[in-house]
Design brief:
Layout (H helix, E strand, L loop, with lengths): L7 H25 L8 E5 L2 E4 H10 L10 H24 L6 H23 L8 H10 L2 E10 L2 H14 L1 H11 L15 E2 L5 H7 L11 E3 L2 E12 L4 H32 L5 E2 L1 H15 L3 H4 L2 H6 L6 H8 L4 E5 L2 E4 H7 L12 H27 L6 H24 L6 H10 L16 H27 L5 E3 L1 H6 L34
Antiparallel strand pairs: 1-2, 1-10, 3-4, 3-6, 5-6, 7-8, 8-9
Helix pairs in contact: 3-16, 3-18, 4-15, 4-16, 5-9, 6-7, 10-13, 17-18
Length: 526
């Protein structure tokens, strides 16, 4: 339809009004848009940022000696200062190209693999799990039944069978007490193997399936759970009524438990369906060579001096098993659909620290090595799948990698500026006399700088000089990098305050041994 506008003045006024309304709406949207509080920036250090989430996680898992102060405001400001110091040194490290050191690059490669596995499980498993109200209600109803039971772990099936017969004759706990008494290295009380009253929500699903139908006081057959044989005896079964208010009250916590149980089951199903078509086959000959070399490394002093990989690389005739492994490095250890893993590549990926069985138990030792190798292949293939799907480009993955890279580059920078710092005899003596309280053995006697005390003084003086050296460098960097701190956000940010200020909590990524988030280096504290 064609508009009939008689007066150009009104036409222009109409357009101006529309523009004003559009601008007003845009400004209103900008001012009222939802900003995730976790993403609010607390501090900017050059090109780096510390958000509310960054600070809170770092602070919550940080060590108490890094939080000096008479109140929580002072403690938060002190801790933030350490975080800023590390960001400053990290940025200097990038300028010095320390992000390209072998250590940092190896750690980065390892982390990317972990992030890809995490991404696959997040997008293909965790994000697809739902928990319905009916499932929550059913779980609450099931939780009205609880159990008390005795349990005993054994390393082998024959031993479990022998103990089961003895328990049936002499009683479960009598047998447990006898075993503990005859094995002084088991330094625990027998009550450790008796549970309190546990409901369906407190017991792992695999374990619940074992005990839920076990008659009271009857001793079970040997049950294999997580590579360990267990004997069980249910000593009590309890039932309670579920009130209407229990559903509303317990729904949030029960939902988490149901979700986690489903996550465990769905993860197992997904990984199984992913791995079966890969047709993974480990070759017997190369595997025996690997097992013999690992056994040699674990039973010789070199195992305390060098990593397994480095020991193999530097091996000679003195260590024939490791030398043979080095000579066979290009042989294929494991084949799978679309690829293969050589012995040399396995040395880069295999975490031998997780193999706890001693080599003198050859069967169990090789069994655990084979399990660890299987997990290594699994994680390798899942990581490749995550990379193929482009998960490295996910924002949260990039953030995780950047945060850890900053941490590792800071560590390299710290070493760069302090490795050549040495204390003189004069500095050792001066430190001793300036800090007599550290070396006093009694209130009445003066400390003496003897050969025993000197070891501690040298260490303390070296640490103090390293800190002074770093602080001097940090002070110079503060003149080069612009630092902005949002004290209004920092001072009002709520953090947990334990009753004992010296208590702390640290959380690690499952299966990696890595902290959930990088935290401030403990060496900064007093």
């Amino acid at each position: 339809m064609k508009l009939n506008i008689k007066d150009r003045k009104y036409w222009i006024s109409g357009i101006a009004l529309i523009v004003c309304i559009a601008l007003f709406c845009g400004i209103w949207y900008w001012m009222n848009r939802k900003v995730n509080p976790d993403d609010v920036v607390i501090a900017r250090i050059g090109d780096s940022e510390i958000t509310v989430k960054d600070f809170r996680l770092n602070y919550e898992f940080g060590l108490p000696n890094l939080k000096p102060g008479d109140n929580v405001t002072e403690m938060k400001r002190a801790y933030l200062n350490y975080m800023i110091n590390e960001k400053l040194l990290a940025q200097e490290g990038y300028k010095l190209n320390l992000d390209n050191t072998q250590r940092v690059q190896e750690l980065r490669t390892e982390l990317i693999g972990e992030e890809m596995v995490k991404s696959i499980l997040k997008y293909e498993v965790a994000d697809k799990i739902t928990v319905s109200p009916d499932e929550i209600k059913d779980a609450i109803n099931k939780s009205s039944v609880s159990f008390k039971f005795n349990f005993w772990p054994t390393s082998s099936f024959p031993e479990a069978v022998r103990l089961r017969e003895e328990m049936r004759k002499n009683g479960f706990m009598n047998t447990v007490q006898k075993v503990i008494k005859s094995n002084p290295e088991i330094k625990v009380d027998s009550t450790v193997f008796q549970t309190k009253e546990l409901s369906w929500l407190d017991i792992e699903p695999d374990l619940l399936n074992v005990i839920k139908d076990l008659p009271k006081d009857q001793i079970s057959e040997p049950i294999l759970l997580n590579s360990v044989y267990y004997l069980f005896q249910v000593t009590g079964i309890y039932r309670s009524a579920v009130m209407e208010g229990d559903y509303l009250k317990n729904a949030p916590s029960v939902r988490k438990i149901v979700y986690n149980n489903k996550l465990k089951d769905e993860t197992f199903k997904y990984v199984s369906s992913f791995m079966i078509p890969k047709n993974v086959v480990t070759k017997g000959g190369p595997f025996i060579i690997l097992a013999n070399a690992l056994a040699e490394w674990k039973t010789n002093p070199i195992g305390d001096q060098l990593s397994f990989r480095d020991a193999v690389k530097s091996s000679n005739e003195k260590y024939p098993a490791m030398l043979k492994l080095k000579q066979n490095g290009t042989r294929v250890l494991t084949e799978y659909e679309g690829g293969a893993l050589t012995i040399n590549k396995s040395l880069d990926l295999l975490d031998v620290s997780k193999i706890k069985v001693e080599p003198n138990s050859q069967y169990d030792f090789r069994k655990q090595l084979n399990q660890q190798l299987a997990q290594t292949i699994r994680d390798l293939l899942l990581a490749q799948e995550g990379s193929n799907r482009g998960y490295e480009n996910e924002t949260w993955v990039k953030k995780d990698i950047r945060d850890w890279m900053d941490k590792w580059v800071f560590e390299e920078t710290r070493h760069y500026f302090t490795d050549k710092v040495n204390v003189t005899e004069g500095e050792i003596t001066k430190y001793f006399y300036n800090h007599p309280e550290k070396y006093r053995t009694s209130k009445t006697e003066k400390p003496i700088l003897d050969k025993f005390t000197r070891i501690k003084v040298v260490r303390d003086a070296s640490i103090a000089k390293d800190k002074t050296t770093l602080q001097t460098k940090i002070d110079s960097l503060k003149k080069l990098f612009k630092i902005e701190i949002n004290y209004a956000v920092l001072d009002t940010l709520k953090v947990s305050q334990p009753k004992n200020r010296w208590s702390f909590l640290q959380a690690y990524q499952g299966g990696t041994g890595r902290l959930v988030v990088p935290i401030v280096d403990p060496a900064w504290g007093k």
